[in-house]
Specification:
Number of helices: 14
Radius of gyration: 25 Å
Largest sheet: 9 strands, mixed
Order of helices and strands: EHHHHHHEEEEEEHEHEHEEEEHHHHEEH
Oligomer: single chain
Length: about 425
Amino acid sequence: MKTEFSLQNATSVGGSKIFLEYLERIKFTDALRGLNCMKQSNSLFALHRILLYLIIGWILGCERLFHFRQYQHDSLIRRFLGGRCPHHSLLYKELDRLSKTRPTLPLELKKLNQQVIAPCLPSELILDLDSTVETVYGNQQGAEVGANSHKPGRKSYHPLLAFEGQSRLCLNAVLRAGNVHSSRNADTFVAETFDLLGDRPIKYARFDKGFGGEDFYQLWESRKIGYVGRLKWTQRLQNEVKLCRYWKRFVDEDWIIEGITMIYKATSWKKARRIVVIRKAQQFDEDQKQMILETDWQYEAIVTNLEWEPIDIWRFYNQRACMENYIKEAKRGFSINRIATGNFAANELDLLMKLLAYNLYERFKKDCCEPIYQGYTISRFRLEFFHCAATIIQHSRQVVLKLAKDFANRFAWKRIATRVALLE
């Protein structure tokens, strides 16, 4: 078999045309032009084209900036960007330059993110807070040795993230050094999230035991927002619970689940608050009855201002566990844990751009995909719909993208394309 490198106007991601057209339909390029980051008039690549190229690259699966070289000469991407794609080395320079010359760009990107997700947010929001660890393998600025269960002793970043619990969308994010506690500047971060959301009502908030403190709880109470948050199981709290004798049983099956409500005041609090304590023990089906000892119980404590039954508080808090999947999708699908540069501010810009790409993908699924595909991760969606060989043909004053004839998901792809075309 003879081999030739002679195929012209080819692309390996012909299926991504539906997403590129979606960006045109929602006028995302115009939104990027609105950012207050002008370059010199003789610049070869306008800033909005560079940012758009970054978004497309993260959507298509680039994990690091040098991976963008595989799309520099891609005919479909070049045509969408106006005829030419920047070299991957320019992306490093632009991120570094923007971090030094445009200190307001992170806030502008956060406001742009709000514009992107606004049509998909529910009428009443559930705010979920969490943090994650991003390990680095160098001496990047701002990276410090902190709590890192996967790579103990390694330097890392410790970003703080806020997601909407019903729509999977990322509301806000900030990059921090790896040696800070989860609750460090959490009240400032939440206040910024309030400002970004504007008049949108937040009904509930959920957070784990890494967050807490008088000022943090007062922030929710002053706005009359219902909150549920895990408490650390301290010896003092344990002694208080031991004094309780009347537990209410909610589940009596393979697992026995009981709960109580009590008023408790931690040493750092200025006032007492409502605490829900849940205990559970596993029982086994045997011929004889099983005696449950005190050591068989597993205890959980949740602080809240909601007047719900303990089992409802516990189950509502457990739904927050979905946020771990959202963070996993952001890491595995959009590589937020792949640190781009050695500059801290540039890395924060990179984080915000990747989370913007994450939100664009989530909105795209809600707007244009059938329910069966709305649960797809970005990795599976790339495999099923984006990765398809194609060529661009110009004939009779028409431009045609010819996709592979035996493309497995061509019928579903056409239905998505039809929905994109119907968007206004």
